Amino acid sequence: MRKLQRFALAAAGLSLIAASMSSVPASAGKVEPKPWSAKTAQSTAAKAAAAACVTSVGYPTAAATMEAADVMAGKPPVGVQYEPFKFVGTRANATWYMAANAAFTQFYYYGLLLQGGYLYRHTTYVYDDDRAPVATFKKVGTGWSSFKTIATSNYSVGAPRHAYLYGLNTNGSLYRYAIAGTGFKSLGSFPGFKGFKTMTVLSETATYDTLLMTTTAGALWTVRIPVAASTKPILKRIRTGGYQNFESLVVDGCGTRGGSLIVAVDNDTKTGNLYAMSKANGAATAITGYGRIPDVVFNGVNHVLLTTHYDQLVGE
Q: What pLDDT does residue 297 have?
């Protein structure tokens, strides 16, 4: 538990940008890109840093760079970009999780990505000085050419723990794999997802994960997938339309009642819109639109959450 607390305090640097962003008026003009060393900062005011609702969005680009932005709720929203660094060309990416070594002297992100028909794991080292992050890659799977997008869950704060990889296939099925160390165990697939387009994780609990997904027609759905392998997903429609223009959804928690911030990205216009959503409950879910996020060019092949190993999503 003490290690969890120490890491949570160290990782509060992920939210430090909130304090500086909240002091920037919407009319102040574009803010200079932040160095990635800000991600390693340790907060001595963790409560204040955590109070603001901020979503950190990462986006590998077609130019083989990694870019990112922190987005804070407001009307209009406030967006601050990070300095780009060298990455690798990808076509789909999953959540980036920040972790640290035992001495808390080295911070790094890890996550999964697709390049062609291959699945890779990246480890991206982030420094507390002016050095750019350095990414390393390891091939961990083949046969992924037919997968449109991927997402990962990581329930690590209770028992039983689990980490799953979800893959949306062009054959209309949703596949699930257990992540165990450096390996992957197939847990089967679920049919009925032919018309679905985007997905991201909304909830991670000991007994289920929930995905937030859109269809090509623009409907917004939750898909609750119980941990029990033989149990079918539970689908609930939140909205019947309005989300057809978005190629990526990025979700992070907001508040103490299970609310979420959603950054929805339109790849054609390279713009993002910010929404606040209550704890998901089908059509009864409340959604507030904050509008387009200024001063950020969302030019990724897709867009993912930057979070920590110990942060859990509880949006449904």
A: 97
Q: Compute CA 4 distance to the chain's CA centroid, rounded to the nearest angstrom.
A: 21
Return the bridge partners of 93, or none.
113
| Rounded Cα–Cα distance for residues 69 and 18 (Å) | 12
Residue (of 98, 127, 103) closest to 14 by Cα position:
98
Q: How does residue 66 score in pLDDT terms, banded at 50, 70 and 90?
A: very high
Q: If you search the block for the tokens 């961990």, which residue do you land on?
A: 140
Confidence class for position 8, pLDDT limits 50, 70, 90: very low
DSSP assignment of 137-205: EEEEEE--TTEEEEEEEEE-SSSS-EEEEEEEETTS-EEEEEEETTEEEEEEEE---TTEEEEEEEEE-
pLDDT value at 298 more than 80: yes
How far apart (Å, rounded) are the C-alpha atoms in residues 193 and 208? 19
Please state whether beta strands 234-239 and 220-226 pair in parallel, antiparallel, or not at all (unpaired): antiparallel
Rounded Cα–Cα distance for residues 37 and 186 (Å): 37
> Which pTM value belongs to this model?
0.89
- First-to-last alpha carbon distance for the chain, in angstroms, is 25
